């Protein structure tokens, strides 16, 4: 038997009201000789605790290393910009042959790099370079929380999963 929460009876995730309803349900089932199977996270893998990981333990969110910011620079052009947050490294990819070169990061927060002048000969194409920033970010694979603040049932990365690879854990509950 699958009994879902009606919209009129949907207490906040892990609130005293929700726990009281769960206790009541287990007690009533026990009186009737029934067994209760508790499935968490709205039919989706555990790990985001109804958004509590983001709110109360952000340091435990899933994390990764991504090459997510890319900027095109023409030969001879200088790229000047604020260094993206949590940048671990940068490299440039040449448009003509897809070769790459590491770009040393500046000591400060201002990034500046001039693309080599290759291709400035009027008879040759002016090949673009792509500067790629490699960063440490907190991210999550898409999840579907059953108790979203916005009231929808959308599957997205709004609520981070806990990072299962972190060795030291806090006692969450």
Structure description:
It is a single chain. The protein is α+β, with helices and mostly antiparallel strands and 173 residues long. It has a domain at 63-138. The chain has two helices and six strands. The chain has helices spanning 16-31, 52-56; strands at 63-74, 78-82, 87-94, 100-103, 110-114, 128-138. It has a four-stranded antiparallel β-sheet, with no helix packed on it. A two-stranded antiparallel sheet has the order 2-5.
List keywords for this structure.
173 residues, 6 strands, 4-stranded antiparallel β-sheet, 2 helices, alpha+beta
Low-confidence stretches: none
Note the gap between the termini. Answer: 29 Å
Q: Strand count, sense and closure of the main sheet?
A: 4 strands, antiparallel
Average pLDDT score: 80
Number of helices: 2
* Helix and strand pattern: HHEEEEEE
Q: Globular, elongated, flat, extended or rod-shaped: what is the shape?
A: rod-shaped
User: What class do helices, strands and sheet pairing give?
Assistant: alpha+beta
User: What is the topology, as strand order, of the major beta sheet?
Assistant: 1-6-3-4
């Amino acid at each position: 038997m699958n009994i879902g929460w009606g919209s009129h009876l949907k207490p906040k995730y892990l609130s005293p009201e929700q726990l009281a309803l769960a206790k009541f349900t287990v007690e009533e089932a026990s009186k009737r000789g029934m067994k209760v199977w508790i499935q968490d996270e709205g039919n989706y893998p555990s790990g985001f605790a109804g958004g509590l990981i983001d709110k109360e333990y952000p340091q435990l969110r899933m994390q990764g290393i991504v090459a997510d910011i890319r900027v095109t620079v023409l030969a001879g052009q200088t790229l000047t910009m604020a260094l993206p947050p949590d940048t671990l490294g940068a490299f440039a990819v040449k448009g003509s042959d897809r070769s790459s070169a590491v770009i040393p990061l500046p000591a400060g927060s201002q990034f500046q790099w001039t693309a080599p002048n290759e291709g400035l000969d009027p008879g040759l194409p002016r090949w673009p370079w792509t500067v790629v920033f490699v960063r440490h970010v907190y991210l999550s694979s898409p999840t579907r929380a059953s108790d979203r603040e916005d009231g929808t049932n959308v599957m997205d990365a709004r609520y981070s999963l806990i990072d299962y690879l972190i060795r030291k854990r806090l006692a969450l509950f």
